[in-house]
User: Fold these one by one.
Assistant:
Number 1:
Amino acid sequence: MTVKAKVRTYVLENYLFTDDQSALNDDDSFMKLGIIDSTGILEIISYLEEELGIQVEDDEMTPENLDSIENIIAFVSRKSVVSST
Amino acid sequence: MKIVQQRLLHESLLNTAKYFPDKVAVIVQGKPFTYTELLDSSLRLANALRIRGLRRGDRVAIYLDNTWECVVSIYAVLIASGIFIIINPQTKSDKLGYILNDSDANLMLTDSSLSRNFVPVLNKSHAVRHLIYTGKELSESTKEELDPTINIETFNKIISESVSMTQVASVIALDMAGLVYTSGSTGDPKGVIHTHQSMMFALGSLIEYLRLSNEHRILCVLPLAFDYGLYQLFMTVQLGATLVLERSFTYPVQIFNRIEESSVTVFPGVPTVFSMMLAMHNRKPLHFPLVTRVTNTAAALPEEYIPKLKEIFPAALIYKMYGLTECKRVCYLEPELVSEKPNSVGKAIPGTEVFLLSEEGNPVPPGEMGILHVRGPHVMLGYWKDPEKTAYMLKDGPIPGERVLCTHDLFRMDSDGFLYFVGRTDDIIKTRGEKVSPLEVENVLYAVNGVKEAAVIGVPDEILGEAIYAYVSLDEESKPTKREIARACIENLENYMVPKEIIILPELPKTNTNKISKNELAKINTEKLDQNIA
């Protein structure tokens, strides 16, 4: 499974309780749609850290990095590139 | 100097805009708006509401997040002599429908992103005849789904096309200003009736004990649908201060940046917010030296948090407070005493009184537990169209015709007159500072095909205060999965009401009288935890 597929599945299962892929667009803002709130974000960060092995700094907890599937994937890619150099 | 008496909630906007026209009233997610802009937009919308049939005392539903349009709507409704109902955008269809039906709201202001919740509900013969919305244009198919007799318009179009209301419609201080819906243990929310005078009084008392001035810059990350959030707006406009309005505390770093760039001086929080901040502070120190007021209510602020909060907010007075929607706020601890009376929530807010009575209705001596009663002009008029529940909360007072609020919460008072919260006498769960009715959650569980029995309890949780645990047993034929049950919850309840854990048992434990035993369920959980320790 690609990273994107993994993250999409995680969000769909745990916050939308569905496996219907069309229920969430890659660019849907979690906050605007009310899908995720403050405790939800912490859970997502835990998931990213445990499953994808990246470390999320406190000052990286921003909407730009976390508020949509697109943003998360871009953020994770940047982190992976940095750690592999 | 002519002293202008202020009796009505919206008069503060009229006055403040006169004296501080160019001062920033609200900064909404970084975008500033002056008092003139706020007054101008509110007057236009107020006029538009009147033209669309709003009459004195009519209810207007405001189903919006913490946005500019929400702020404008609140004042517009008041100026137009209506009654506002601010509905949390997390509210789903069933509850939204209940509130609209119960209140007979004639108009609704909302955002198109909430259409999946309001479209199914608006068609079911409610009194709503006008829908005014913000956000993306509703699709043609969505508009077709709506009852054709409902007039649909966009907020921006109305504002640009309407002229200001010139003659402010008349109400008196006794008239209702807002219906604030709150959860109760019987499952359906109740509309707390607040008048201009009860809200004006509460406002004045808060400003007094918080020692606020027009120089303050007040942060609001709490929903405006929650009176704790709403009054940050009311206090700001009353004072001529500035409100820094955000949608939530979901992205703390964004909030911290906002605090710094907007020079926030007042930080109202709930224990969940403080707990997250403390966790972050332990990893990398936080420092907000310009904040001079930190307030807490909705749930108890743990004593252990105070030293760390003083590190994060070195210049701040820390206020521990307690209140309920039915009177806005009950008591507060003078910040100078926060270390001296560590677990206390202090004394009655200025201009009010409290006393403790036993179950039989007798005064209790210092040190003993009693049920807290509240006297003051801040007490609600009652619950909307619910004389029974009103009678449960409002009792005859010492003065003929007076209604005293019975909180149904247990407190102790020490020999110095300081109050200590002991517990609730009902089974309302307090999670993330929000009230959750177990029955409301149980109703949603029972509606899931295949759920035979359901029971919801609160379990102590370090971050949440209490976590919601749902126990269910299933039918032989149809066995829904945990995920299906969770989905039903998220589709019908606000986020904070969704159970943290769903536990499926073959059968739920019963009492001698064959009712589900929540005590036994609580024990199951502790035993489970105990096994983890062993």
Number 2:
Amino acid sequence: MSTSRSTNIVFENVSKFYGEVLGVNSVNLSLPPGVTSLVGPNGSGKTTLMNLVTGLVRPTQGRVSVLGLTPDEPEEFFRHVGYCTQFDSFPKGVTGFEFINQTLRLRGLTSSEAARLASEAIERVNLSEAAHRRVAGYSKGMRQRIRLAQSIAHHPTVLVLDEPLNGLDPMARAESIALFEALGKQGLHVVISSHVLHEVDKISDQVVLMSYGYVVAEGKIHGVRTEVKEHPMQILVRCATPGLLASRLFSQDHVVEAKLNNDGKGVLIRTKDADLFYQLLNKIIVEENFAVDTVAPNDDDVNSVYQYLVGTGSGGTV
Amino acid sequence: MSSTAITGMGKSGKEIPWQLWASQLAAVLRIELKKTLWMRRSIWIYLLAFAPAVMFGIHALTSPMGSHCSIEEDTRVLAYTFQIFYLRVGIFFGCLGMFTWLFRGEIMEKSLHYYFLSPMRRELLVAGKFLAGFITASLVFGTSVLLCFTFAYGHFGAAGHAFVFNGPGLGHLTSYLLVTVLACLGFGAIFLALSLIFKNPILPGIVVLLWESFHSVAPSLLQKLSVSFYLKQLCPVTIPPDGLMALFTVITEPVSPWLAIPGLLCLSVAILAFACFRIRRTEISYLAD
């Protein structure tokens, strides 16, 4: 591999139309290694974006490259890319092991090497006991996990996962999230789509917010939140004397609201300038020997940002 | 898991990875042969293929030692059966069912993307699937033709033996088997390509059937775009052009076998090249299908 090759997943002015129906429009992105979450409601273009990355669909306009490679060089491209699609379908009559083994043999691997990697991947998703049972008899969660195993079996450096948590029980969800996080920390590109925001929020290094085929925001979630100027930042301060703090803060121009918590042990501040607020809070703490238990942003998460930008969704899903 | 991608037999760089391609082709062939040979939905193809063999078998049983027929008569019946049934119906519809399902089946079952996400040229996928279909169809129809031939002459005893081994019989058999294999090749290529263009290849298949049946009334140049044009030239027994059947059997543009075989091969390769061109542009959108 050339040393000058890009290390990112790059979209250059990419549009995709299905006839007259818009898939995605004018997408310009450069996704670095780590966990990237694609967030948006059904029909927002997440799957199209993933299919574009993996060459299952071709852009109507623009160019997509992964680590400087395109699907036109499949031997090289798909050695690096693994894709767990949303399609809950399998070749007929195969067992979990055969399914993964077959796809590994298509990579030109020897029988023993393919068998070793297949077993390793199956173990990784905790399906060893069911490996030699037919996939047709698997539960939805097991099918999801065997597809995940298939996408990671060849040790990809770019892993694309379309709604990978669908159908998983809470234990399997937690294990999968931990796996994605670990892969991201190993320096892999892990691109995940989800409409369950609080799940991806926990593990994402960066997010891409999508709506109606457009990328409405992208970057680290805190950075994106800071850019949403029209919605004052909410910060929750837990302290013993919230009333006193509220009266000190309320005289500031950038503070638009200070609301006491029902339990009487905290105050929710809405400020137009978070940096100024933190400076002021530090000053109060130092000068007035003010005791503060915790300070935490209250709407610095994917769900809030998505609602501010797109104006839909509630309860952690979009 | 290590972050190093598994390389397989492929080599980086611009070198042509023949070894990788060969092992990938073998892998596709293995998967596809299992499907095409043992597919439950292929039963009708087997029944279609072996129906004439059953008829010839019954004929052999009811006419021991050629008591109610002659070698000449059976030779003519075999020629009619081959040219009218096998070429026009059996192999044609058998290949239609088998080759169109190679890709359409994957699309219906939503499993084609597993191939598309492999580090494999899509052209190799076309080649592997085509080879699997070709081997299966040739095996099924070749066996059926062989059985028909055996039943047609076996019940004549010594006379039949003499016809086959000391007369023209063995030559006829070789020609029938060659035409069978070439028919599977030509029709297979057409139907595989059609399945990559049309969501429902049945209607285009009917158009092909009409073209293959009535191409003899077309101008000389156009006739060369028909698979039957080449196959007819290679059949060992000429059927007299009588009545309506003449439409199917008459040869208006005689061509030597030495041109007919390469001609058919060229036509098949051209169609497969088109299929490769199509599959490079094929996108996965199962919902639309």
Number 3:
Amino acid sequence: MPDRPAVSLRGVSKRFRLHRGRQISTVKDLFLRGGRVGLFTGEELWALRDVTLEIPRGRMVGVIGSNGSGKSTLLKLVGGILKPTSGAVDVAGRVSALIELGAGFHPEFTGRENIHVNGILLGLSRTEIRERFDDIVAFAGLAEFIDNPVKTYSSGMYMRLGFAIAVTVDPDILLIDEVLAVGDEAFQHKCVGRIQEFKANGKTIVFVSHDLGSIERLCDEAAWLHRGRVEAHGGAREVIDRYLYHVAREEAQALGVEHRAAEAAAAAGTARRWGSREIELTRVRLVDQAGEERYLYEAGEPCAIELAYRAHRPVEDPVFGVGVFRKDGVCCYGTNTAIDGLAFGKLEGEGRVAVHIHHLDLIDGEYLVDVAVHARDGHPYDYHSRLYAFAVRSRAKDTGVARLPHEWRLADGGGR
Amino acid sequence: MGPRLADLYRFRVLVATLVLRELRARYRGSVLGFLWSFLNPLLLMLVYVLVFAVYLRMPMENYAVFLFTGLLPWLWFTSSLGHAAGAIVGSGALVKRVLFPAEILPVVCVLSNLANMLLSLPLLFLFLLAFGIRPGPWLAFLPVIIALQLLLTVGLALPLAALNVHLRDVEQILANGLVLLFFLSPILYPVSTVPVTLPVGEGVTIPLRPLYFLNPIAGLVQSYQNVLFFGREPHWIHLGMVTVAAAVALGGGYWIFDRLRDSLAEEV
């Protein structure tokens, strides 16, 4: 059956019971419901909902999604460790799961003894273990420690041994859950090498990770899980882009909510706001080119900081100022209308002032804003210190405080 | 999905490996090491002999050896169930992350404690010889009795281990139940001290002895004592009841375990 997919999930849902409150029902109940429902009634959590996914033989699929989106549950269902609440999971071939490596190691036993027990637990025969023992030890890089009890191992050594045993199982389908995060650089390279070997041998691999870079590099396709559902499945690059877009939008929303909270705090009064209030800043917003309120920007985008004021009595020549700070307190830039040689004369009633930043040339990170209106002599009417936050996202990993406008040119020489 | 032969073989190796690990782990790091499997029952026996033979003057010849005969199978039974109840909960990490039949865990508990008892048996024979007791031909029946106890214990260990995952009270209830069962079994006293009937009022009597043997452990311990200490044949009716109990426990126990199986990885 060459066309049969290696892994096929059809309409798979998985429900967990959260035992809050622990109400005990009867033992009879437990059996009537076959134990699947558990002894306690409580809140339910649908870790997966109606997931349909086919993974063809020989493909490497990355599974991405935020924490709690159901990635690990998906792996455990494919691995047969959990049973679906509804739907069907079909797996064609021998599965090896690299989930929480070293589960079942006995701390008092030596690495050598644990290799034997763990190998048999994972389905190897005694002969297979004997044959591959030296490989396992060499791969884990633990030759000098193999006769020490594993309780003396560092967590990295522990994981390395677990990984080395698990990949020895020679599965048709390999499930990997975030294990590349363990071990040092050299070991990670070895792991990636072993995974590529598996790929070259036509094995099917399901790879759960938050490291989108690894997924993009290693996987043929990707599936994005969002709140237990498959939001997208297709080419790795494309799915990752959609996921990142979604993450950015959620982040922007969160920043918007944060801004509302900051506004509420400013209105209610806080230690971060002071001044005599002859003239007040009633509202502070960041808006993009289109005039939409937004608190997440791509580096280099235009952006405006808009201040709404209300003067309770006529105020002579007030100065409006803004400052942008990094979260660690470093001031990135600050200016005011006086520095910039502006004078508005006498202000009364309500109005708005905005400073338009042509290019928000900051590096990737979170920033805080100071806004103020004060007299020429510095007497503060209304000062909001680091109440408002915004974030800048950038794919470039440049460093420093600001991105100075620049370009590179080959000025001289160049091998001509 | 019926168990396939290849699977059975694979799990046999796994069980053997885990039993061996259990035995080696138990005494690892202790100075006396393996001697503890002799010392534990021996110390217990000495205390009981002191209380019952010396203080309470139990009128029985070779009381110490009699006591030891019943104590060994009892210790196997009680430590098996005690360990088995916590076996799946204690190996949560394994059950949650590795695909293997969880019934192996309680079975390993029972088997490793069986190994412990078998290793103490030579000591018992030494005692029997030292006190001039010749077990006789019925000794050949000992493996059958051990096998029955094995089935009964496994049958009880399976549901206890699975139920304890859902209801942690099981371990506590069991610990108390085992103490009661100890005194309701003929370990400290011979069966002959249990009255056949117990008058409770005018013309009303309770058939105490038949009720007493509703406890299958009583029948088991009696059988051990018969073939080892008294050198006579087992009480066939009692042994038959033990057989029925073992069959019921194993069938029912496995049924319960199987019903709870899918929930184990979630709940543990």
